[in-house]
Amino acid sequence: ENVENTPAEDLRDEYQRLADDVRRYRYAYYQQDEPLISDAEFDELYRRLEEIEALHPELVSNDSPTQEVGGEVSAAFAAVEHLSRMYSLEDVFSLEELTAWVEKTFASTQNLGLAAPRWLTELKIDGLAVNLLYRDGKLVRAATRGDGTTGEDITHNVLTIKEIPRELSGTGHPAEVEIRGEVFIPSKAFEEYNEVLIAQGKAPLANPRNAAAGSLRQKDPAETAKRPLSMYVHGIGRHEGLDLTAQSDFYALLKDWGLPTSPYFRVLETLDDVLAFIAEYGEKRHELIHEIDGIVVKVDQLDEQRQLGHTSRVPRWAVAYKYPPEEVHTKLLDIQVDV
Ligand code: NAD
C-alpha cells in the first residue's frame, strides 16, 4: 500500500502493529540472541515504519523504535553507563541512496565552511558492538552497547578473547579512553565449531553474528572461553587528552597499542572510489576472515565529525550501505513496501 496516498487515520493500526513487531523482534535479537526473522525482513519492517513516520510525524510516539538505539540491558548482567554515548548507524540499501548520502554530507561540510571530507571506508562486520574502557593503559571494563547510554558489563567474558590486550603496549596512554569495536566469530572457526557440536550430537549455532552475541552474553566466562571469538576495533568514545585529527590516525595509534584493527579499511577521496570499494568487497565478501553485511562510510576528519553531530540514534557523519540480501525468507507479514 502506498503510504503517500493513505490518510494517517488508516495507517494508525498498521503503525502500532509495526512498532510492536519491531520491538518484539528486537527483543528476540538483542536480549535472547535468537532472531525470529531474517535481517532483510527486519530491515523491511523497520523501513516501512520510518516511511510512515516521515509522512505522518503526528503518529510518532516518544517510545517509537526509530527514536532509540535497539537493545536494553538484561537483568542477568550489571548495568554500566558508557562515558560517551554509543550510536547505531543510518542504513542505506541502494547505491543511489549511498550516493545521495555522500553528496548531502559533502554539501553539509561545505555549508559549515569545512574542508572536503575524506571517506574512511570499512567493512561492516556482522558481530556484536563492545565498548572497552582503558584507564592508564589497563582494561578496566567491557560492556555491550545496550541502549547506547547503558550497556551490560561483560568484562569477564571479554577477557577470554585473546586479541584484546589487558594492558596496552606502546606509550602515550590517556588516563581514560573508550575504544569501540565488533566482536565476531571468524567464518572458518564458526564452521569448525559447529562441526564439533554436531559430532557431539548438539544443535549447531545458527549464524556467526548470533553465535558471537550469545557467546559473549554467557553467565559463565569459562563457557565464553570455549567459543572462538575475535575482535576488530572501529570507534572512539571518550578520549580526553588525545590529540588526533582523523579517525584513521586513531586506528594507527590503536594498532601501536596492540589492539586488533581491521586490515581492510581505506581512506578514499571521491565517491567513485567509495563505489569501487563497495563493488570490490561485494565480490570478495565470502573470502574474508569474517562475515560482513555491508560497508560503513565515515567522514575521517574528527573535527568534521564533531561539527556534523548526531541524531538521538545515529551519527550524521557515517552511513552503512547494506548489500542486497543473498537469501530472502518468506515474508511473515503481509505488507508491501514501495522502494
Ligand atoms: P547496525 O548493526 O545496522 O549498525 C550499527 C552497528 O554496526 C554498530 O553498533 C557497530 O557495532 C556495527 N559495526 C560493524 N562494523 C562497523 C564498522 N566498521 N564501523 C562502525 N560500526 C560497525 O545497527 P543496529 O541498530 O545494531 O542493528 C540493526 C541491525 O540488526 C540490522 O542489520 C537488523 O537487520 C538487525 N536486526 C535484526 C533483527 C532480526 O529480528 N533479524 C532484529 C533487530 C535488528
From TrEMBL:
The keyword DNA-binding does not apply. NAD(+) binds at residues 39-43, 88-89, 122, 145, 182, 298, 322. One of its GO terms (molecular function) is DNA ligase (NAD+) activity. Keywords: DNA damage, DNA repair, DNA replication, Ligase, Magnesium, Manganese, Metal-binding, NAD, Zinc. It comes from the Bacteria. The active site is at residue 124. Belongs to the NAD-dependent DNA ligase family. LigA subfamily. DNA ligase that catalyzes the formation of phosphodiester linkages between 5'-phosphoryl and 3'-hydroxyl groups in double-stranded DNA using NAD as a coenzyme and as the energy source for the reaction. It is essential for DNA replication and repair of damaged DNA. This is DNA ligase. It comes from Arthrobacter nanjingensis.
